[in-house]
Design a protein that fits this description.
single chain, 9 helices, 3-stranded mixed sheet, alpha/beta, about 290 residues, 15 strands
């Protein structure tokens, strides 16, 4: 099959990206939208395009197939973070329903494109349900952790549970503190027995669950948490892509036997508060 991503750590074979050029459009577009979208500051369009070129070139060195979601006037700047609108299972894609209202059109747009890549639509979160991909973490192929907070609600999780019947043996609901955007803000899985976490805000019961599974947990230093240090993309087992500028976290990862690749993302990551996982949507992992 050309799809299937019930893992956070298997080697990425197919990847979907949306270039900053197509998400941001122009500096005028950035100025018009960034404040309402609550960016920490308006990205510089030209710098963002150059950052993204280098980001995509780095990924292309390690991933066999990369496709790009086309530009659309139905979505805004946040469409660069295309991990959030869709989840890819072994039976097809589940279209999310965004908790951030200004992103509500994104799942429909990506849903029209995925069949062109040979990926069927398994279902969608509808009605009062909200669910964002940044809250959905595969602990292993049959175990799913889902953050419940400002972006994902109980009804969204109920619908996800129904849509993944037969695919998931256990779904763990993680209640997030109000200050946390997504579960992936606090957790990135790097191998079946290794994860990086921010335990200060991670619910203790969930942390204990991970430890009971035999996972070693790398603790992100508090001084680097706000620079997306916990948001790390595993390209393969113990091989990851991280935002540059977090030297303490980088050293902890290397001490744990993780190969660390870095990219500069002041414009495409930090200003929109999205790390390398947010910027990517793996379609197939081996």
């Amino acid at each position: 099959m050309p799809f299937g991503c019930q893992s956070m750590v298997g080697k990425i074979e197919r990847l979907l990206l949306k270039h900053a050029r197509d998400a941001f459009g122009s500096q005028e577009n950035i100025q018009a939208q960034s404040k309402e979208l609550k960016y920490t500051g308006p990205p510089d369009y030209e710098l963002a395009v150059r950052e993204y070129d280098r980001f995509a070139e780095l990924l292309a060195l390690h991933i066999p197939e990369i496709r790009f979601l086309p530009a659309s006037d139905q979505v805004g700047l946040d469409s660069i973070y295309l991990h959030d609108p869709v989840i890819v299972t072994e039976r097809g894609a589940i279209l999310c329903r965004m908790g951030k209202e200004l992103r509500r059109s994104e799942p429909e747009v990506i849903g029209r494109f995925l069949p062109e890549l040979g990926i069927p639509i398994l279902g969608a979160i509808t009605g009062a349900g909200t669910l964002e991909g940044g809250d959905v973490v595969w602990i292993d192929r049959r175990t799913l952790a889902v953050g419940r907070g400002g972006r994902t609600n109980g009804e969204g999780i109920r619908q996800l549970r129904k849509l993944t019947e037969g695919l998931v043996d256990r779904l763990i609901q993680v209640v997030l503190p109000g200050s946390v955007m997504h579960l992936m803000s606090l957790l990135s899985v790097l191998d079946e027995d290794l994860a990086i976490v921010h335990s200060t805000l991670l619910p203790e019961s969930f942390r204990e669950c991970l430890v009971a599974r035999g996972m070693k947990l790398i603790e992100v230093p508090l001084s680097e948490y706000d620079r997306q240090a916990c948001n790390i993309l595993a390209i393969d087992r113990r091989k990851c892509l991280a935002l540059s500028g977090n030297p303490l976290t980088k050293e902890l990862l290397r001490e744990a036997g993780v190969e660390v690749l870095e990219f500069d993302g002041e414009e495409i990551a930090l200003k929109g508060e999205g790390g390398p996982t947010c910027l990517t949507r793996p379609l197939l992992r081996s």
